[in-house]
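Page 37, continued from 36.
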């Protein structure tokens, strides 16, 4: 069988794209190919579970537009498919006078993105989070929480209900390009398709090159490590509590996240990973390390922000340093309240000039679409991203 479209990558974006191809573009035959034993094995399955409101993103950017649409659609999808979730809201806290101006800028950006934000003074913060200290804050009521692994599994089920196929354990070893099709070779079988969409996450740049497409960027993996709060101390945080982010970086700083199971996560930091799927502090793969350390863009980034990077590494190995960062938000937190938790790896696209790509990045070629950068809020925006990529396919592909 020759499929109309093969979607490479069974994370939340790949599955949402396949679903949109089948249900919105009415593509006759779609197959999703996932390298691991189950869908959502990497970024999706290690996600913190936040349904982002769209507070941080530049108005008019693809991130801002797709986050707003995707958030609304995700809430509806979860309600329709009985997926546990909560529209719990989020508190962003300014801790220093210097952060007050950045908080004002964040408020203006959020309003421009259509959010119903509420400014809070120091006293009003306590009404939302009694143990949080700060000079001022923003309350973002549209923010929520969900288990994205469950969401991805529901997407996969809907893909199959719509007539598509989802195949795991299908790591692609070679790609043959023929005049009218692609032949994708895996250990188990060869899959033929007329058109190809890649949502390959941590392997996105490599897979693009394998397909003869210059991605223009290099994926550099950053590991985010978490602690959890001891169950008897969960009353320190009611919901989601964030510091004001540094606008130089696409990371949000160490913060608190309540999960749908009631647990509280603290983190993450952001340290360079020397393995693309490296969830442990000492995870290492020579080819992955060389891919980063031989890239000029990485050294340009490191030259500008080595102090920040050194601090993240120190915090990775020091529970005390992690605690001190969190204690700025919650002075009542004790170091023994922190229990080592999980980790995730973010596929961050880095340009040759050393700039971290902030927006979603999609590259097109003949009969191909490659999603090269889909960091947070990609999970929140997944249904909207899927529709966007599916529309591109409908316009560009010969179906």
């Amino acid at each position: 069988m020759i499929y109309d479209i093969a979607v490479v990558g069974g994370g939340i974006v790949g599955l949402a794209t396949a679903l949109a191809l089948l249900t919105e573009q009415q593509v006759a035959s779609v197959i999703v190919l996932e390298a691991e034993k189950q869908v959502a094995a990497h970024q999706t399955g290690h996600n913190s579970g936040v349904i982002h409101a769209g507070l941080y993103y530049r108005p008019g950017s693809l991130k801002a537009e797709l986050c707003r649409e995707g958030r609304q659609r995700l809430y509806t999808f979860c309600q329709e498919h009985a997926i546990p979730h909560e529209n719990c809201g989020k508190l962003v806290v300014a801790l220093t006078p210097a952060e007050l101006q950045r908080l004002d800028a964040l408020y203006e950006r959020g309003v421009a993105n259509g959010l119903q934000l509420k400014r809070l003074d120091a006293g009003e913060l306590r009404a939302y989070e009694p143990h949080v200290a700060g000079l001022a804050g923003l309350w973002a009521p549209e923010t929520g929480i969900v288990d994205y692994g469950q969401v991805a599994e529901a997407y996969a089920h809907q893909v199959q209900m719509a007539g598509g196929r989802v195949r795991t354990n299908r790591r692609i070893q070679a790609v043959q390009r023929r005049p009218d099709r692609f032949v994708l070779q895996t250990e188990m079988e060869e899959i033929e398709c007329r058109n190809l969409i890649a949502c390959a996450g941590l392997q996105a740049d490599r897979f693009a090159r394998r397909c003869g497409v210059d991605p223009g960027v290099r994926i550099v993996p950053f590991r985010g490590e978490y602690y959890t709060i001891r169950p008897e101390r969960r009353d320190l945080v009611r919901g989601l509590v964030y510091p004001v982010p540094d606008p130089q970086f696409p990371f949000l700083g160490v913060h608190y996240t309540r999960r749908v199971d009631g647990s509280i996560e603290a983190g993450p930091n952001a340290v360079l990973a020397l393995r693309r799927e490296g969830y442990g502090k000492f995870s290492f793969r020579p080819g992955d390390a060389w891919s980063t350390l031989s890239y000029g863009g990485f050294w340009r980034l490191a030259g500008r922000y080595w102090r920040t990077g050194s601090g993240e590494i120190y915090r990775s190995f020091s529970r005390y340093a992690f605690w001190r960062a969190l204690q700025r938000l919650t002075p009542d937190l004790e170091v023994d309240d922190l229990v080592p938790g999980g980790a995730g790896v973010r596929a961050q696209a880095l340009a040759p000039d050393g700039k971290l790509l902030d927006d979603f990045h999609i590259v097109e070629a003949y009969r191909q679409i490659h999603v090269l950068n889909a960091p947070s809020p990609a999970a929140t925006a997944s249904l909207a991203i899927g529709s966007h990529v599916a529309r591109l396919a409908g316009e560009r592909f010969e179906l």
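Residues 296-317 form the longest helix (22 residues). Flag for discussion at group meeting. The chain has a mean pLDDT of 95.
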